[in-house]
């Protein structure tokens, strides 16, 4: 396992150091979609099979007794490493290219980013999981804060309601007592007191 963690660390550091080395030949969106499509199915047996197929290292003689982690998380980490390594490079000649070459080739800089690394991929995954939670309909067993956050999120993305409501509510708040310079027609400073307006809003 120590070896695997070393590779992971090298790859994370390498991908941070390797910002800007990305190939832009293929459409980044396509390569990004391909990257997710290539991820193997979520069953442990499938993952193990995939690792055995891709890994150039000989499998341990007896998996059951070997001191090796076979949880799904460990297998996912192994797969991520296998998908990052460029095995056609000799690690003694170019360790960076060996440990991270394939990751760099498979993860071009998305058009919306000026940098891209393992950390950005993780952030994207966390955002997707969070969005999945927020868009799951409210369940009776949800905790109250979860219900509230789901409701707030649903309201935030309800563009139809936002459009139909318009700015009436905000303008109502801003025009209390003296109005607001930028939005009140024929506004005059007389009688306007910023503190009063802010306090009442
Ligand atoms: C792996 O390294 C070889 C030799 O440097 C290079 O020709 C090849 O394009 C690399 N493959 C990937 C996927 O980066």
Keywords:
201 residues, mainly alpha, 3 domains, elongated, binds 2-acetamido-2-deoxy-beta-D-glucopyranose, Peptidase M13 N-terminal domain-containing protein
Explain this structure to me?
The protein has 201 residues and is mainly α. The protein folds into 3 domains: 2-106, no CATH class; 118-165, no CATH class; 168-200, no CATH class. It has helices at residues 2-17, 28-37, 44-54, 72-82, 95-106, 118-134, 144-156, 159-165, 168-174, 194-200. Helix 3 runs parallel beside helix 4. Mean pLDDT is 77; it is low at 13-24. Bound molecules: 2-acetamido-2-deoxy-beta-D-glucopyranose. Residues 86, 88-89, 97, 101-102, 105 line the site of 2-acetamido-2-deoxy-beta-D-glucopyranose. 2-acetamido-2-deoxy-beta-D-glucopyranose (NAG) binds at residues 86, 88-89, 97, 101-102, 105.
List the topology elements.
Layout: H1 2-17, H2 28-37, H3 44-54, H4 72-82, H5 95-106, H6 118-134, H7 144-156, H8 159-165, H9 168-174, H10 194-200
Helix pairs in contact: 1-5, 3-4
Bound molecules: 2-acetamido-2-deoxy-beta-D-glucopyranose.
**SSE arrangement, N to C:** HHHHHHHHHH
Distance between the termini: 59 Å
| SS-based class | mainly alpha
* Helix count from the secondary structure assignment: 10
Q: Mean pLDDT, as a whole number?
A: 77
Biggest pleated sheet: none
Number of strands: 0
- What portion of residues belong to β-strands? under 5%
Rg from Cα: 27 Å
In brief:
This protein is mainly alpha-helical and 201 residues long. The protein has ten helices and no strands. 10% of the residues are buried.
